[in-house]
């Protein structure tokens, strides 16, 4: 019989947590033939990622995954062979008790947030004994071979390179989103949290020597964009122009379409975890808006990633990259930093593809999870 997997997801930050777990669940089914239940405590958020889903249903099958509503009034179910507690969410007490009482042992995994910090490799795969006799193992996604890897479907890079090599496919995709490509423009996607630095960046783009087309999927950054533009409230489909800058608001789109948006653009500003990883697979220069944490702990995570990512760039290109990311995440002079980054643009572009290929040489997250289970057996 197929191994059964339960993935529990508590939606705490818009679509980041559900974005990661939904991708993982689909991949475990499609590529590893597993029986997967995805438990979601906010079905409405899931529908944004999977529009054909029905948020009113307690159980439904979508793309081979059994998607279940994780309600407060939990009804007892048979635990799976593998239980993934995504991003430190707390499993129902009744479910944990059933895990402890199950005749066949259960592998309990705490899937952690992504980090490039040094301590990750030392903690990855470690068990934590629980009072009920169960062991919970910490599983850390990461950028090195000593971590759990990154979400990446088989053939993803082959699909991406074929798409990017076909200008007609790119233009057709954009037009299906209602976007008419601006001739000769640098194409940028913007998906971020609210950011006070945005206006300074947009001002430089608007006054620059090159046309820029900015595509903004519906999300939290729209409030900051509205503050800079002024005028009527922005709606999906709206376009605005300021100097050389052409802006268009896009609808919130399913994950596969968002991947192609990233592939279509010359530069991608992304946020959180899911879009951050997908932008790296796009092989294009990127800008990460990391989720803010207390005591500026997020900046340590930002610098840990930059220490890896900047390797291979020239000294000037490294300085420009780090300055831009710090300005974006600390309300700094991002306009000036953007101007400096453009001076090393060809190098930044080549480096983004090289980084992508190097990360793709490692096992992906789904593969690493399955192998961990097999080793545990």
TrEMBL record:
Keywords: Glycosyltransferase, Transferase. One of its GO terms (molecular function) is protein-arginine rhamnosyltransferase activity. It catalyses: dTDP-beta-L-rhamnose + L-arginyl-[protein] = N(omega)-(alpha-L-rhamnosyl)-L-arginyl-[protein] + dTDP + H(+). InterPro entries: EarP. Pfam families: EarP (PF10093). Belongs to the glycosyltransferase 104 family. Protein-arginine rhamnosyltransferase that catalyzes the transfer of a single rhamnose to elongation factor P (EF-P) on 'Lys-32', a modification required for EF-P-dependent rescue of polyproline stalled ribosomes. This is Protein-arginine rhamnosyltransferase.
């Amino acid at each position: 019989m197929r191994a059964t997997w339960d993935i529990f997801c508590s939606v705490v930050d818009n679509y980041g947590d559900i974005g990661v777990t939904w991708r993982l669940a689909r991949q475990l089914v499609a590529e590893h033939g597993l029986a997967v239940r995805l438990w979601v405590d906010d079905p409405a958020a899931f529908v944004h990622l999977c529009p054909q889903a029905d948020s009113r249903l307690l159980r439904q099958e979508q793309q081979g995954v059994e998607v279940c509503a994780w309600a407060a009034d939990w009804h007892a179910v048979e635990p799976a062979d593998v239980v993934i507690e995504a991003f430190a969410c707390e499993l129902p007490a009744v479910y944990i008790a059933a895990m402890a009482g199950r005749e066949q042992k259960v592998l309990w995994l705490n899937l952690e947030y992504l980090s490039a910090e040094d301590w990750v490799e030392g903690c990855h795969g470690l068990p934590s004994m629980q009072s009920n006799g169960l062991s919970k193992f910490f599983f850390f996604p990461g950028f090195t071979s000593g971590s759990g890897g990154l979400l990446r479907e088989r053939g993803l890079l082959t699909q991406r390179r074929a798409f990017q090599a076909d200008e007609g496919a790119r233009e057709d995709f954009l037009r299906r989103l209602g976007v008419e490509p601006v001739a000769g423009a640098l194409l940028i996607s913007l998906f971020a949290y609210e950011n006070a630095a945005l206006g300074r960046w947009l001002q430089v783009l608007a006054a620059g020597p090159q046309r820029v087309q900015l595509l903004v999927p519906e999300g939290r950054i729209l409030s900051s964009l509205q503050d800079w533009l002024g005028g009527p409230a922005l709606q999906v489909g709206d376009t605005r122009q300021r100097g050389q800058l052409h802006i268009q608001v896009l609808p919130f789109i399913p994950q596969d379409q968002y991947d192609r948006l990233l592939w279509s653009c010359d530069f991608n500003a992304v946020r959180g975890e899911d879009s951050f990883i997908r932008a790296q697979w796009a092989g294009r220069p990127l800008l990460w808006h990391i989720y803010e944490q207390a005591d500026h702990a997020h900046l340590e995570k930002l610098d840990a990633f930059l220490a890896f990512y900047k390797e291979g760039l020239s000294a000037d290109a490294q300085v420009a990259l780090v300055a831009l990311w710090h300005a974006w995440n600390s309300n700094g002079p991002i306009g000036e930093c953007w101007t400096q980054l453009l001076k090393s643009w060809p190098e930044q572009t080549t480096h983004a593809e090289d980084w992508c290929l190097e990360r793709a040489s490692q096992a992906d997250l789904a593969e690493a999870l399955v192998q961990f289970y097999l080793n545990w057996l």
